[in-house]
């Protein structure tokens, strides 16, 4: 486990070890983990330019004011959008790309627990936000991330360590229980990130499980199971919740620490792999079980998901599942937008 003290020590070095003017995009940052991570980034970096995407203009005004207090030299740009729709994702990406040549960090925490309904684009709403929209943001913005001359990183807040079987007859998980759906989507995410890492080995990709954190996602429950889970968390939550500030600090660590280097490390004088490690903190193992291999599935503690996940993913790769997942994903993008690209 990476201790909170080690996390805080690393974050305190961001301003001195990473360049000023880092550009980051936070998707799903008008509450919960995304908001907490955004604020920690504002608090810890020099003159950052931070884009954050969400649905609430009112929350955005509050967050912008709070970030400006934390860092008067930073720029904080809100883009209002419903990212359950791929066309909206494309529009947001075009807006950002019209202003930015390079991006250092793409942080994805958008999500919902709504299930059993489709978006107007024909995607099951839960994976539409938790998988398809996130993957579309990455594919669209990856050229900009590759252009960065310092840190290059993608962080997806999902459920690293909770991978499960993939049902290739139901990629959208329209006929799955919520419990089965999680493992299915987490494994799809890992394999999609591995595919993207082949295209951009100089970029780090992280799929993390945040642990139990009190956020506003429960308000969207629309099934008995998700409603019941919300009631249970109301009762036991105070005993198990990770404080929201600590969650923000840990996610900033995931986004900036050299514990998670890319598969291919470029000239250290040109591109940073992240904040240097403190004594006792080691480089993480990737989804293939190899140290520093560029794609990481990690627990809330910052450590590798473990041998069970490595074995499960190896079996899926042997089945050709990575190619099947990617072909399906690109096929859905092409169906919706008429193109696999933005």
From TrEMBL:
Keyword Oxidoreductase found: yes
Keyword Transmembrane: yes
SUPFAM superfamilies per UniProt: NAD(P)-binding Rossmann-fold domains
Keywords annotated in UniProt: Membrane, Oxidoreductase, Transmembrane, Transmembrane helix
Species this chain originates from: Penicillium coprophilum
Protein name as it appears in the record: Ketoreductase (KR) domain-containing protein
InterPro entries for the chain: NAD(P)-bd_dom_sf, SDR_fam, Sec_Metab_Biosynth_Oxidored
Domain of life of the source: Eukaryota
Single GO molecular function: oxidoreductase activity
Pfam families: adh_short
Ranges annotated as spanning the membrane: 224-244
């Amino acid at each position: 486990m990476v201790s909170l003290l080690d996390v805080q020590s690393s974050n305190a070095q961001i301003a001195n070890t990473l360049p000023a003017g880092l550009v980051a995009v936070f998707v799903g940052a008008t509450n919960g983990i995304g908001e907490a991570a955004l604020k920690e980034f504002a608090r810890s970096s020099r003159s950052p330019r931070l884009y954050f995407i969400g649905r609430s203009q009112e929350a955005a005004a509050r967050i912008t004011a709070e970030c400006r207090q934390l860092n008067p030299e930073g720029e904080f740009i809100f883009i209002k959008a419903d990212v359950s729709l791929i066309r909206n994702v494309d529009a947001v990406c075009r807006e950002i790309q019209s202003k930015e040549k390079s991006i250092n960090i793409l942080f994805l925490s958008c999500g919902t627990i709504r299930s059993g309904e489709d978006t107007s684009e024909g995607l099951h709403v839960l994976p539409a936000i938790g998988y398809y929209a996130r993957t579309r943001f990455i594919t669209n913005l990856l050229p900009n991330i590759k252009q960065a001359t310092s840190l290059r990183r993608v962080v997806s807040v999902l459920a690293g360590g909770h991978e499960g079987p993939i049902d290739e007859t139901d990629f959208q998980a329209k006929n799955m229980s919520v419990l089965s759906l999680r493992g299915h989507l987490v494994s799809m995410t890992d394999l999609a990130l591995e595919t993207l890492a082949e295209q951009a080995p100089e970029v780090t990709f992280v799929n993390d499980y945040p642990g139990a954190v009190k956020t506003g996602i429960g308000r969207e429950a629309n099934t008995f199971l998700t409603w019941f889970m919300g009631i249970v968390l109301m009762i036991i939550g105070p005993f198990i919740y990770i404080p929201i500030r600590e969650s923000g600090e840990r996610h900033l660590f995931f986004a900036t620490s050299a514990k998670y280097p890319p598969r291919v490390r470029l000239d250290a004088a040109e591109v940073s792999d992240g904040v240097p490690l403190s004594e006792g903190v080691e480089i993480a193992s990737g989804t293939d079980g190899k140290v520093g291999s560029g794609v990481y599935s990690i627990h809330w503690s910052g450590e590798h998901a473990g041998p069970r996940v490595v074995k499960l993913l190896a079996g899926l790769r042997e089945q050709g599942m990575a190619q099947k997942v990617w072909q399906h994903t690109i096929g859905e993008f092409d169906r919706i937008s008429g193109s696999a690209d933005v």
